[in-house]
Design brief:
Elements lengths: L1 E6 L6 H7 E9 L8 H6 L1 H7 L1 E10 L2 E9 L5 H11 L4 E5 L2 H5 L3 H9 L9 E2 L5 E3 L6 E2 L3 E9 L5 E10 H6 L18 E5 L4 E5 L11 E3 L15 E2 L3 H4 L3 H15 L9 E4 L2 E3 L6 H16 L4 E4 L7 H13 L5 E4 L8 E6 L2 H6 L15 E6 L8 H20 L15 E7 L5 E8 L5 E5 L2 H8 L8 E4 L5 E12 L2 H12 L5 E3 H14 L4 H13 L4 E3 H13 L5 H15 L10 H8 L5 E5 L7 E5 L9 E2 L4 E7 L13 H9 L17 H26 L1
Parallel strand pairs: 17-18, 17-19, 19-20
Antiparallel strand pairs: 1-15, 1-25, 2-4, 2-5, 3-4, 6-7, 7-9, 8-9, 9-10, 10-13, 11-12, 11-13, 14-30, 16-28, 21-22, 21-24, 22-23, 24-25, 25-31, 26-27, 28-29, 29-31
Helix pairs in contact: 10-13, 11-13, 16-17, 16-19
Length: 718
């Protein structure tokens, strides 16, 4: 069983909503002017206050029509007042209407959800719902480099899925101070029309402002974009197993907390919101831990470079001490390998790590050529950026870089070096549809020829026509099974969450509402039961019973037990393992929670079933459609997970298949899933789509570079 971020079915009482609230719609024809009416309400705070608008959201309902939805307290405003407010700030045509029960009942559930989630700032959630989404404002300001502010917003999908998206806001003043023009390339020109936001760092308020207002304090103004195109915001961790404040600052906890608050304040209008649960089968990964999984890759890399020359390329005369650190780390990682430091790529057939000393240059010059190395069409090269060098992460950076060199060698020789189960791939073909630099689509193929060699190439126009001319414009990945059946492989917007039990037990630990104490007899009973099951700890547990008997307390509260555990640790009465066993026993027998430990083996399935290993299930409505997600390796898993595990869909491609196509069998499903069980795509983790797509992606990049170079030469000859 897994839990997804999509809400299970719920009911809305529209009649009750209309008892307490009014909902209005405002339509605008976008052909007249690209001016969204929500700006009127979010820019002009006097309008918001005078009309008593609680929240707003909007969406396109037709190609050229944008509809804004407003929610207010009952009878707080009427249609005429809304129209007058709009006309005061715009001469363009808008149509405002008050929605009756029938109109509200016909609304998408997601629209109503957005309106009510956007009202949560009235009920203790720090943020604002006046920008179309619920923006959460953090409890502590974090203005990175005095330039950036990373804010997280709640997004409610059309399928009623919930996710948190973090985006970067940059001070308008910083664009001016750093001399970065908003017009420095075509992709950035849109920023000239981007809205400005006033963010009060003391009160933690955010609202859109009129950037043409002469009295505007530009010091507090931000644009929702990074200063440099490729700068990314600091993402909130998806999940963490640590101190309570760390857990409570994760995306998982925020999502559960938002629907918990929603249920507590809007229970009159909505049935209880819960995240969807799905029954699945699980493909376990044996007994390998993340560390052991990674060590296997390290061993393969060391064996490979024991017989292949490795060059570290740095063209600067004055050598940076970081280069010596890199060389020392390489020698430690590959003790049998001689590493040469060279100023240029000389060995056209060697393996070269080319140092990039100025990452910012490449970020601000989209058309930048590699000016750190000479022409090396035959050489195998991997760039290594060191201006953001972190010594603590050097080992993982180097392993990734060396692994990429091996993959590029494989592409050059059309032979696999890091994959050791080619028999599983017999009969499978992998296709990727990609857009070239000129926007034209091309199709690429990867398939095994024999147990060692593979074929990877760009299909010609005649071969690719049947793929490109399909109705599915978003088609990217295609798989052909050994039964000659084509399947589309699509990433869904839905991802897996820790199970609700984890959120409940964490909150129980915080509040101690369900079980705040155990009696002396209950505590002794738990210790006696453990003594029988764990003979190695019997003496220790019996000694603890003697200590408990001397206590004058008849019952032990949470705080009493914490004092006892501190006493045990300090006096070495019980080992940490024995204490953890006691914690588990108190929870299992009496529901008492002192510490939530989702990472331990006994609790992984209870708390993190959707975040670990590989889960798959069949669509209830179409038995030919298969879903799966690839989680983290469960044994000795990491203390945190940075990103959610998305669900992927395998769907038969009706147009490419014969009428009576052969559906994928369980045996082939398991073979397919094993194509994710490789250690050379993601560091110390599984890959989320079959590994041949990694080779296709690298091959496509190389092909596009070659075609771009040919085009440059052709243009010069014109």
């Amino acid at each position: 069983m897994i839990t997804t971020n999509r809400l299970a079915k719920f009911d809305i009482d529209t009649r009750k909503i209309l008892t307490d609230y009014d909902i209005y719609s405002v339509d605008q024809n976008l052909e007249e002017q690209h001016f969204i009416p929500k700006r009127i309400f979010s820019i002009n705070i006097d309008v918001e206050n005078s009309l008593g608008i609680n929240a707003l959201t909007g969406k396109k309902i037709q190609k050229n029509v944008y509809r804004l939805y407003l929610i207010t307290k009952k009878s707080a405003v009427n249609v005429q007042e809304i129209r007058r407010a709009i006309e005061k700030y715009s001469q363009h045509t808008f149509r405002a209407s008050k929605l009756d029960e029938e109109a509200i009942s016909s609304l998408d559930k997601a629209v109503i959800l957005r309106l009510f989630f956007n009202m949560l700032p009235f009920y203790g959630i720090k943020g604002t719902g006046m920008l179309g989404n619920l923006f959460l404002t953090p409890s502590k300001p974090r203005l990175t480099q005095k330039i950036y502010l990373d804010l997280t917003k709640l997004v409610v999908g059309d399928d009623c899925s919930l996710f948190l998206s973090t985006s970067r806001f940059t001070k308008v003043k910083s664009f001016m101070e750093h001399g970065i023009s908003l017009f420095n390339n075509i992709e950035r020109k849109s920023l000239n029309n981007a809205p400005w936001f006033d963010i009060d760092l003391k009160k933690w308020q955010i609202r859109q402002v009129n950037k043409y207002n002469k009295n505007l304090n530009i010091e507090n103004c931000f644009i929702n974009a990074p200063l440099y195109p490729k700068d990314k915001p600091h993402q909130m961790l998806f999940w963490a197993d640590g101190k309570l404040n760390q857990i409570q600052s994760t995306k998982f906890y925020h999502l559960y907390n938002l629907i918990s608050v929603f249920n507590s304040v809007f229970s009159e209008y909505f049935s209880e919101l819960k995240f969807e649960k799905v029954d699945t089968a699980k493909q376990l990964l044996g007994q390998l831990s993340q560390t052991e999984w990674g060590n296997q890759l390290d061993k393969h890399i060391e064996e490979f470079f024991a017989t292949n020359q490795l060059n570290l390329i740095d063209n600067r005369i004055a050598r940076d001490e970081r280069i010596e650190d890199i060389k020392a780390a390489l020698v430690q990682l590959l003790p049998t390998v001689k590493v040469n430091i060279r100023p240029i790529v000389e060995d056209k057939f060697g393996f070269n790590l080319v140092v990039i000393n100025n990452k910012r240059y490449f970020q601000t010059h989209e058309d930048a050529k590699d000016n750190y190395a000479r022409e090396y069409q035959q050489a195998i090269v991997q760039h290594l950026t060191i201006d953001t060098f972190r010594k603590g992460a050097l080992r993982s950076t180097l392993i990734n870089s060396l692994k990429e060199l091996i993959i590029k060698k494989d592409l050059k020789e059309r032979s696999l070096s890091l994959y050791h189960s080619p028999a599983l791939m017999a009969g499978w073909e992998f296709y990727q549809v990609a857009k070239g630099a000129n926007g034209a689509k091309a199709v690429y193929l990867f398939k095994m020829i024999n147990s060692d060699e593979f074929e990877v190439r760009r299909l010609d126009l005649q071969e690719s026509a049947k793929f490109i001319n399909l109705d599915n414009a978003d088609l990217q990945y295609l798989i052909k099974t050994p039964a000659n059946t084509f399947y589309n492989l699509n990433r869904k917007s839905v991802f897996t969450l820790p199970n609700a039990e984890l959120f409940g037990d964490i909150n129980e630990m915080i509040s101690h509402q369900n079980c705040s104490a155990v009696t002396k007899e209950e505590l002794k009973q738990a210790l006696n039961d453990l003594s029988k099951r764990y003979p190695n700890y019997r003496t220790k547990y019996q000694n603890l019973i003697s200590i408990i008997n001397k206590r004058e307390l008849d019952s032990f509260s949470i705080n009493d037990l914490k004092d006892e555990f501190d006493f045990m640790k300090k006096n070495k009465i019980l080992s940490p393992i024995a204490i953890n066993l006691l914690l588990d026993e108190l929870y299992e027998q009496y529901g008492l929670v002192l510490k939530v430990k989702p990472k331990i083996k006994a609790h992984v399935q209870k708390y993190l079933s959707g975040l670990t290993d590989i889960n798959y299930f069949v669509d209830n409505d179409d038995q030919d459609v298969i879903y799966y997600n690839v989680g983290t390796i469960s044994k000795n898993m990491n203390m945190s997970i940075a990103k959610a595990s998305h669900i992927w869909q395998l769907q038969p491609n009706i147009k490419l298949n014969e009428r009576n196509f052969a559906t994928i069998e369980t045996e082939n499903i398991l073979k397919f899933l094993q194509l994710m069980m490789v250690n050379f795509v993601r560091f110390h983790q599984l890959t989320v789509i079959p590994f041949p797509f990694k080779y296709l992606r690298e091959f496509i990049q190389l092909e596009e570079k070659k075609r771009s170079a040919k085009k440059d030469v052709t243009d010069l000859l014109k």
